[in-house]
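Re: export button greyed out
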Amino acid sequence: MIVGKKHKIIDCTIRDGGLVNNWDFSVEFVQHLYKCLNAAGVDYMEIGYKNSPKLLKGSESSGPWRFLKDDFLQEVIEEKQTTKLSALVDIGRVDVNDIVPREKSMLDLIRVACYIKDVDEALELVQLFHERGYESTLNIMALSNVKENQLIEAFKRISHSVVDVVYIVDSYGSLMPSDIQYLVKMFQKHLPSKRLGAHMHNNLQLGLANTLAAADHGVELLDCSVYGMGRAAGNCPTELLVGLLKNSNYSLRPVLDMVEKYMIPLRNIEEWGYLIPYMITGMFDEHPRSAMAFLNSPDRNMALQFYDMLTVPNVKS
Amino acid sequence: MIVGKKHKIIDCTIRDGGLVNNWDFSVEFVQHLYKCLNAAGVDYMEIGYKNSPKLLKGSESSGPWRFLKDDFLQEVIEEKQTTKLSALVDIGRVDVNDIVPREKSMLDLIRVACYIKDVDEALELVQLFHERGYESTLNIMALSNVKENQLIEAFKRISHSVVDVVYIVDSYGSLMPSDIQYLVKMFQKHLPSKRLGAHMHNNLQLGLANTLAAADHGVELLDCSVYGMGRAAGNCPTELLVGLLKNSNYSLRPVLDMVEKYMIPLRNIEEWGYLIPYMITGMFDEHPRSAMAFLNSPDRNMALQFYDMLTVPNVKS
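Workaround output, generated via the alternate export path:
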């Protein structure tokens, strides 16, 4: 049990929420969010991906937060305040030539997302970002589908790397608080010198509960997004985490400002959150892509049809 | 930790959900729910209140599930199956002359809801229902606002009563899993001979997590409602509890049938669930009535205005 302010909050609204609206956030939206997160005392704002458009198909229509450029960021964030800035990169989608030394960038933290098979490649990127002066995290995705021996093998390399923080990522929103407790203890045992982070999805309405369970067991960096905006079922909502995290000193009111001014109107035109197909993929520990496709079809409210697609062998595509 | 099927689920969709739509459920709706809950293996269906319309103002416009009559119930539930039937009564609103002996009623269980100050009166009702052959529970509401010494005083009388089950009711949706653990242990210590129940609200998106925490610590009866339908932020969703409760043998598919056929269409015309004013009353451990009024006003999306109403002294009404 952690006593005193030991936790740090990373708001991922722009980065993970961009998966909902193809990163179509206005500069005013992002600037207002930065102002609100500063006022709330939130520690980091993940302002997008730092992948390269050259390495991703169909990237032309995406908003600028998908391929962050340092000069653009300097225009957006006119004055840096206390909330640090973060970006995420994916293995195989980042051009290392785009990563300028930290002193020339608005970014403080670069996080590397990878599947377990790509941990070595991810650690090479982490090493490079480290040399260029950034804080770094390694975010192992889809942890619920990783076999424990694979994970323990990976821990050996991770423990000898320079990475600052290792993340427990519940990509499919399928984990429960007891699973989180188990995973945190395993990570702590094998990575005693690393700080830990948690990124939870809300398919089973457990995003907050899992994040609080992680915090209770000593996880330091806690991801969330305002009004829960994130892919599919979304994330642990920032307003809840800010309001409920124990031994912390965050302010709820500025987050509600963002909710009122931007998130409620946005939720009227974009969709994320507790929807039955996302609940079902969460329960079955699957990627939400089938649910996303189903919700874009005319049958979107046919809960049984979707359930049968995933459970009846000859119906499953 | 409980091993084996020790839990029982009570679906409260009609009773608690009736607080949303003034009990305006069709007979077909209720019959279909009964069929689905039976198919899912749910143990109890709370089919309404058994209060008296003579003792409640403005009762004329309410649907029949607010004032259950035994002959009406016999028409609705043509054939009793394995799911038992339950009704709730409130102190001061029930006419004991309406309670026929159990063998003449479709009801199996009568639950008595009370505030801590009315425990004695509630136990008198419990005694009477017990004598007429019913199972009984005592549901102490607004537990988050009860002082521990009051509770311990009440436990003495409760422990000497005939009541079968004593409920932990998070009326304001303000409790967290660690609070639930604390309360369950206290109830177990002072009421070692009683079975326990849990009724959680979802203001902080913790309805499921709190219900699972209660179950993990030995609470036997678990309340929920389909698609979370219940007053204000609603309840722990039945589909999640049925799908995720460990060591149980419930079927999810029939609950999804109810969600698809009735609940998704109903949610399009009635409102419950995670709405910011309900989140705020939950966080401040208050009754949701101020949030309900606010959401019926033209300012309903002005999250900051509502927050300030509850926090700035000279703005609070």
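The interface with chain B takes residues 176-178, 202, 204-209, 212-213, 216, 237, 239-240, 243-244, 252-253, 256-257, 259-260, 264, 273-274, 276, 279-280, 283, 301-304, 307, 311 of chain A (CB under 8 Å). The button fix ships in the next patch.
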